[in-house]
Fold each of these.
Amino acid sequence: MIARATVAVWIAAAFAVALAACEPDVGEDAPPTGPPTAATSATATAPPSPTTAVAAGLDPARVIDVIDGDTIVIEGGERVRYIGIDTPESTNQQQCFGDEAAERNRELVAGRMVGLERDVSERDRFGRLLRYVYVGDVFVNELLVRDGYAAPSTFPPDVKYQERFRAAERAARDRAAGLWGACVEESAGTCDPAYPDVCIPPPPPDLQCSEVAFTNFLVLPPDPHNFDGNGDGRGCEGAR
């Protein structure tokens, strides 16, 4: 009788183990609760979680609308302009890669809690808040440049991350990422070599800064459009 009871216990235990193995692990498919790491955030295809935590030292805000690749609206109705970058236009005019930049920005921040960081200036001349934007530990401004959706556009005194943005741009250009592949090919043969960072056609006609989409770009002699009025090698620095 003792032997039979022992065998029965073994059988019951084995059955319990087999049953447990067949049951799904409820934690296996659960969404991650922590913010994405820097290594995964740049390459992940899924957008960050709407509940991603905001890092200490940043001002939290929820994004309620995405205007374009570098402008959003947060709760309360404030418009926020990303500091230090420019994306192609997709609202007032259609520029190459403008729709793609707006869509990528939407994937990153729409409906999500973001962290906002101020540099020196509070607002631009249009009344928009000027901020660096983060989703978890993803630096959105820099990511858009590194992946070829934006180009650096520096306006002193807000220059805290200008070197990071320029390094990200070089990496994007080396890979022909985003607009550096699609738009350069599209405009091949029509870009004046005096403006190697952007694509601006040679005259005629003679263009003004208000007539081009780029700001604070590299200018080389002879500067046929006279974009570099102060001779510092940068064009249209006062435009935005």
Amino acid sequence: MPNTSTIVAIKVDFEINSTDKLRRILFHLEKNTEGELIIWKIGFKLFERKDKKDPFDDPLVKFDIQVDKKLNDDAEKTSKKKKLSAPQEAQLLGPGASDAKRAKAGKIPQAKAEKTIQSALKQP
């Protein structure tokens, strides 16, 4: 019997809005397997507006991140939730969004911003 590989995909989307309604983050988790290899990816989009009466325009920042393998279990746990925890949301809306904007402006390396965003997976 020939060896076959099964591809299992999980896709979960979370929408996070700041309490002042001026910042929105779309956080997407996706899991794929290639044989025995598990690959998690994060899609991160940051939207901002000056007045909550205005619509959100195109994303201010957009990252597609391959998750560090050490965080695979955390990504799995997060994907099974119906919503992100308050500490996860705070990490993404605060340090995650700030570092994403700083990376876009060239003030920090994009890899640092990606690490900050990924760290939301470690939050309880």
Amino acid sequence: MLSDDTEVEALVKAYREVSPYLSDRQLVLQQLLTSAGYCEAEGSSAWSVTLSGSGYRLNVGQVEVLTNRLTCMDSKTSDLPVDRWFSDFRILISGPESPELVSTLAEDCRIEPMNYKSVGGPHWCVHITVPLRVPPSDPEREKARSDMAAVQSAHRHYVANAAHTSTGKLRQKSSFARSHCAALITCARRETSRRVGSPSYPDQVWNDELTVEAIPAVDAPWHDISMFALTTKAYDPACTNGDLELTESVERKHELSLSELRTALFNRQRLWRWNVGHGESEEGPAPAEMDKIRQLLDEVRNRVADRSSV
């Protein structure tokens, strides 16, 4: 039997394997916390979350209120150059605004009329698919996030209905308490509370997610700089100059794009890692090399501070 902390760490690792981007994991897990929070706001503790295949299901009382599945289109069995990952949501809604909302979303989302007797009144399931491992500015992702935001009020109405019996009594017991996964809630709270650029984890960060606050100061400890260097998707073909000569990259730093600068930092971090034990110190690169790294870091900060240069 796994310990609670071991189970939490296993879940964090599993979600990181699906996507190395913190923003992806936060999107998938924040909705779980939000939906459970709607139930708690009613004063009810009648909710449970169950691990379900490659995702989770949230029930209030005896009814489903939210389900998430992580799916992958395998590049080996499709014409895609790389695997494509998606987060598929089933979000249950009800309330006076729902009929118009269903009509509006019908062009983009699959809508199912539902018939849970314990909910009462018309209610629907809205299917929303969010592409993962794509920039936040990706049109498909932007539309999916917009649709998720649009259903929240009607989703809250549904959760409130599910939290009460047909006579209006507030439920306090979950029908799925035995399958409740407390570790997933801990995992979700841990992941959603972390900030982009945290030096504790080398999460990958898109350029348009990057903020000045997430970039270590030039005099920061090597550990923080090293972790930041690993936040770029440097092996991606989109980083066209991933094979820049490491010395050349510093002299040409004003000519490089933000992606190329971050790739150069990544290359220097890897070069240090490969040479620890062969002349390099565990505490960080030699002073001359560290000066070049700090120059690149400073240029990254300047580009992020002035987005017109990106």
